[in-house]
Amino acid sequence: MAFVELSKKLKLDELSERDRIIASIGGVVLVVAIVYFVLSFFIFSPLTKEKVRYEKNLSVLKELKQIESEFNGINEKYGRFISSLPPRGTDISSMILRISRSANIEANVGDMKPLSRRVGDFKELSLKFTVDGINTEELVNFLSKIENYRNFIYIDELEIQPKSSKDMRFLKAVIKVKTYIQEKS
Q1: What is the pTM of this model?
Q2: Cα→Cα distances 177→44, 87, 93, 138, Å
Q3: Co-location of 69 and 6 in the same domain
Q4: Backbone phi, psi, residue 95, to 5°
Q5: Which of 34, 109, 111, 177 would suit a FRET pair with 5, their CA atoms being 20 to 30 Å apart?
Q6: Which residue, 175, 174, 128, is CA-closest to 147?
Q7: Distance between CA atoms of 73 and 172, rounded to whole angstroms?
Q8: What H or E segment, with its residue span, contains residue 99?
């Protein structure tokens, strides 16, 4: 009914068939444009914003997963390091004497100077000592046993020289080794 009254006021009945088709198409285009703008403002715009937020959150999540993976790798290495440390109360001198005994050079080890200091939650134990009158093969065997010892111990300094200038077969080595003991759990 309202359409008929509107049609009379606008005098649509007086239009030719061609003009009515053009007016109808124009009306449909106008209605479609209004519906599109309403939908885009109230539905599509929020959806686009949500999509952007979703993609941003997804990239943050991927970054967090990567950080978690790196953390787990570092934590695993730290756990292996902690488990390889000597137990509390360990004496680094006795460790070196045990290793030298297994390398059959215990009599050649002497002049031991132990040192210790705190490093964060750890106690760093170091020992400087001399190995005198051994051949190259014995020294290499001894150093290998230190590096491959069941508890974490490493060679910090190594100075090798012939025992005397007359006999180059025998060596004198000054070695400094270090290890760590966990003070706090």
Answers
A1: 0.61
A2: 69, 17, 10, 17
A3: yes
A4: -65, -45
A5: 34
A6: 175
A7: 41
A8: helix 92-102
Query: pLDDT digits over 61-92, tens only?
Result: 999 999 999 999 999 998 888 888 888 878 88
- Are 119 and 180 a contacting pair, CB within 8 Å? yes
Which of 84, 96, 97, 90 minimizes the C-alpha distance to 116? 90
Query: Looking at the 3D structure of the chain, how many domains does it have?
Result: 2
| Pairwise CA distance, residues 116 & 178, whole Å | 9
Which of 84, 111, 128 is the last residue in one of the domains?
A: 84
- Residues β-bridged to residue 131: 109, 173
Would you say residue 118 has pLDDT above 70? yes
Please check whether residues 52 and 122 belong to one and the same domain.
no
CA distances (Å), origin 128, targets 73, 96, 115: 34, 10, 8
Q: Which residue has the tokens 């045990």?
A: 98
> Comparing 14 with 111, which gets the higher pLDDT?
111
Q: Are residues 100 and 177 in the same domain?
A: yes
Are 64 and 100 in the same domain?
A: no
